[in-house]
Amino acid sequence: MVETTMQINFGDPNTLAWLIPAGPLLAFFLIMLISNRARLLPATDQAYGGHHPDYEGMEVPVVRGWSRVLSVIIGMAGVLLALVVSLHLVSLGWGYGHHFGEEVFASAIPWLDTGTTTFDMGVLVDPLTVIMLFMVPIAVLGIFIYSIGYMANDPRQSRFFALISLFAGAMLTLVVADNLLLLFVGWEVMGLCSYLLIGFWFEKESASAAAVKAFTTTRVADVIMLLGIVYLYLETGTLSFREILYNPAVLQQLATTPAIILGGSAAALISGFHIPGTIA
Q1: 48, 136 Cβ separation under 8 angstroms
Q2: Number of domains into which the chain is organized
């Protein structure tokens, strides 16, 4: 297993995976910085170059001119960086052939010290991760391209691109996470982004209600998953995927695995009930 600890050298493929979620996350912060410079203007044709009935007679933050174009460019650049780095790691993984499961790319740095134990924040690129790294950035890039036209006449287009960037960064964090705690953090940020995107036109009562419904129902599954993660740590003393999967003694203690799987499965099951109501 190829692994580095306590240092980040982006010339090393083992730490290159840090750049995958970093691109969209950086894009989110930059776009929000631009959006904060927006002016409150009436939602009229003169304000944003189009007519949107949802904002009729209202004042909304409007990003105009070069700032609006720049927010689109930044969002696209962030996901393109993630895509390029992902494809590079995919090509490196294919170079290992059937031995890639043994020679994974991994890197970790200290994250949280409780006094009795230290939680690391790390990245892990294994065969399963490679599959998702090929799919996720391409899907997000497609969403960005479609959204350029779909949100063209919306005065809060920059905010939309910021949220999509944050969602992409959280999803990619979940994909490359080397432990259950970091995976759960990425999962929760994705849930927050879903809430904000579903309720993007929160002035509409239907959109606001749909966002609240989606947020509350998915939290039920998240609680189940969190309980499974906590109990797993209490039983095994670790949340690292590698320590769990490569240690037979730890594998024997995975009685809580059904709870974790139940949490993820419940999220998918519950979505069947709340998704129809989220199309506001």
Answers
A1: no
A2: 2
Q: Over the stretch 245-271, which tens digit does the pLDDT of each residue have?
A: 766 666 665 654 555 555 555 555 445
- The Cα–Cα gap between 230 and 250 comes to 15
Degrees to nearest 5, angle at CA 140 with 261 and 134: 70
Q: 220 lies in which domain range? A: 202-280
In our burial notation (b when 16+ CB lie closer than 10 A, e otherwise), range 60-91 reads: bebbeeebbeebbebbbbbbbbbbebbeebbe
Same structural domain, 133 and 87:
yes
Would you say residue 184 lies in a domain? no
Amino acid at 267: A
The low-confidence residues of the chain, meaning pLDDT below 70, are 1-11, 36-66, 95-103, 115, 246-280
29-85 residue pLDDT tens: 999 888 765 554 544 444 444 445 555 555 555 555 567 788 889 999 999 999 999
